[in-house]
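not sure who needs this but someone in the group chat was asking about Tyrosine protein kinase from Dyella nitratireducens so here u go. i didnt clean anything up, its just raw.
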Amino acid sequence: MSKHDENVFTNRRDLKADAGVRQIDETPSTGHSIALMTEVGRALAPAQLEQRRLIHREDSVRRQSDAFREIRTRLLELSGGQNFITLVVSVSPDSGGSFVARNLAAAFAFDEAKTSLLIDCNLRYPNQHKALGVEPEKGGLIDYLEHPIRGLKSIIYQTGIPRLRLVPAGTSRENGGEFFSSFRMRAMLDSLRCRYTDRYLFLDGPAIKGSPDARILSDLADFVVVVVGYGRDTPAAVNQAVANFDTSKLAGVVFNQSA
Ligand SMILES: Nc1ncnc2c1ncn2[C@@H]1O[C@H](COP(=O)(O)OP(=O)(O)OP(=O)(O)O)[C@@H](O)[C@H]1O
Ligand SMILES: [Mg+2]
């Protein structure tokens, strides 16, 4: 790989204290397990995963996959045993926020007892569907929020990674604030999280600088992971960005070196 990572997870809290439509049921009910969800099509091979900048189990990406597993472990320690919603946002655009969100979701899906759902909440520059090679033919998040009658099932796509599903952003928008602060968005996340106890949700938000969306999205999340482009932001800028979030939700800061 021409790019490599230097992910360092700084904990800010006291640790003591080829895709298709998914095949699982999404009718309202709670507390089921979906780790044995049906997968349609073949799982992507390690070389295909690397092309998509995704971790896998082979040695060639061991350093990266260990870094993401470590973040997974810390989040699980903080959560006290319940499934949760994690917002991943970068301080400045193009710093690797989506890269970290995607790989963190993949690290959870590595665990055969867990499933993860990545939701692309970057409405202006959505990219997870492209990165994961998903064709969002039935729309995504915004399409559901505007027309909930379509049902959640239609906007959850397989990714070629067992137990990892994607909700793409859908029809792109300049501003997500009105959607993210809506009752419908909160109800959707509640229903996605509560429906399956082994499902972990990851919100991929736009950068903190230049948009209020990251802060608005943090109200919907249990944890926030902030991504700093290595050498891009000054310590003062990082502190200012982090100050947007409730300290009890701030799970850590990842320093990502993408080039
Ligand atoms: N550690 C890394 N290793 C390899 N590639 C990386 C790494 N971090 C980021 N990249 C690549 O750099 C590019 C920008 O990353 P990404 O889209 O994740 O940034 P972002 O902060 O989400 O940007 P945006 O502001 O558009 O949301 C992508 O092509 C991504 O695959
Ligand atoms: Mg992004």
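also The longest helix spans residues 62-79. if thats useful
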